[in-house]
Amino acid sequence: MSGTEAAVSRTEKAMSEIAVVRDVAALRGEIGAWRAAGSAVGLVPTMGALHEGHLALVRRALDRCGRVCATLFVNPRQFGPNEDFARYPRDEAGDVRLLAHAGAHLLFAPAVEVVYPPGDETRISVGRLGEMLEGEFRAGFFTGVATVVAKLLLQAQPDAAFFGEKDYQQLLVVRRLVRDLQIPVEIVGVPTVREKDGLALSSRNAYLTAAERAVAPALARVLTETAGAVLAGTAPAEAERAAVAALTKAGFARVDYVAVRDAETLEANPPSGRPRRVLAAAWLGQTRLIDNAPV
After folding, report:
1. How confident is the model at residue 11 (pLDDT cuts 50, 70, 90)?
2. How far is CA 129 from CA 97, 126, 135, 186, 238, in A?
3. Which is catalytic among the residues 51, 54, 101, 105?
4. Could you read off the pLDDT of 249-260 as tens digits, one per residue?
5. CATH of 203-294, one of 1.20.1530.20, 3.40.50.150, 3.40.50.12280, 3.30.1300.10
6. 8 A C-beta contact, residue 105 and residue 67
7. CATH 3.30.1300.10 residue window(s) in the chain
8. Which of helix, strand or coil describes residue 269?
9. Measured distance CA(157)–CA(55) in Å, rounded
């Protein structure tokens, strides 16, 4: 068998080894069989349009768990009325191929009515943590996130669930959700995957024009510089103002925020010695990018 034929054979084998289920009963049936065989279960929630950042979550889950289930659900409840739900990138067939090649064993890809049955009214709020920063600019966003993540965790009942640090505030919200509701699952944060020029991978990067893509890496660079300045003794408020000015000069049309916050609570002005994080959201044309860096 030639090298090409072997590669094709491996691809076909991978495709045959990932199942796709679309209802909760089938999901629980598959995961129940894994548990009966003694396997730990890892969950990787996604909204699809997968990239290397998502696949890094799958690989981390495979390192920790015997079986891995990914989910694909573009959650309408976390999009505002003027946001990009309708045009959010969707490519289920491509996502299935990527997940199979990465080694995932199962994909849960439910329809909206499976996740939100008729008459569904229960919503979950994590309080202040979900109201600051992203919560200020995207009203209801974290209620949508917390609600759908709680549903997915209860539907799949994994041992561990894996989330990227690129969406740092979301990671903290999920950890708070699990702690407060006493859901028996470990939430594992996975470092941000970046392009060679520093741009954090995101499904929304596909929206960028060539000119905007050339500007985009400035966000990571400025955040790294801001973290360094704060670590060297610059007052956070001064560092934040300088970062906004630097992003504007680099070509960002609007900066929603640059904020130096407590790394666990996201409160401003954390006590001395507490770990901190600098977070930002800024616009290039019609595309809103977020990123963060440790201090």
Report:
1. very low
2. 36, 6, 8, 19, 24
3. 54
4. 999 999 999 999
5. 3.30.1300.10
6. yes
7. 203-294
8. coil
9. 21
For residues 239 and 259, the answer to whether their CB atoms sit within 8 Å is no
The CATH label, of 3.40.50.620, 3.30.1380.20, 3.40.120.10, 3.90.700.10, for the domain at 3-190 is 3.40.50.620
| 3-state SS string for 15-81 | HHCCEEECCHHHHHHHHHHHHHCCCCEEEEEECCCCCHHHHHHHHHHHHHCCEEEEEECCCHHHCCC
* DSSP 8-state code for residue 206: G
> Per-residue pLDDT tens for 169-227?
999 999 999 999 999 999 999 999 999 999 999 999 999 999 999 999 999 999 999 99
The answer, yes or no, to whether residue 44 has pLDDT greater than 90, is yes
Task: Return the structure tokens found at 75.
Answer: 């959650």
Q: Give the pLDDT confidence score for residue 249 in this predicted structure.
A: 98
- Closest listed residue to residue 103, CA positions, set 157, 64, 160: 64
User: What is the location of CATH 3.40.50.620 in the chain?
Assistant: 3-190
Say whether pTM exceeds 0.90.
Answer: yes
pLDDT at 154 over 70: yes
Rounded CA separation 128/241 (Å)? 24
Is 101 one of the annotated active-site residues of the chain?
Answer: no
List the Cα angle 199/204/210 in 5-degree steps.
Answer: 65
DSSP element (H, E) containing 266: none
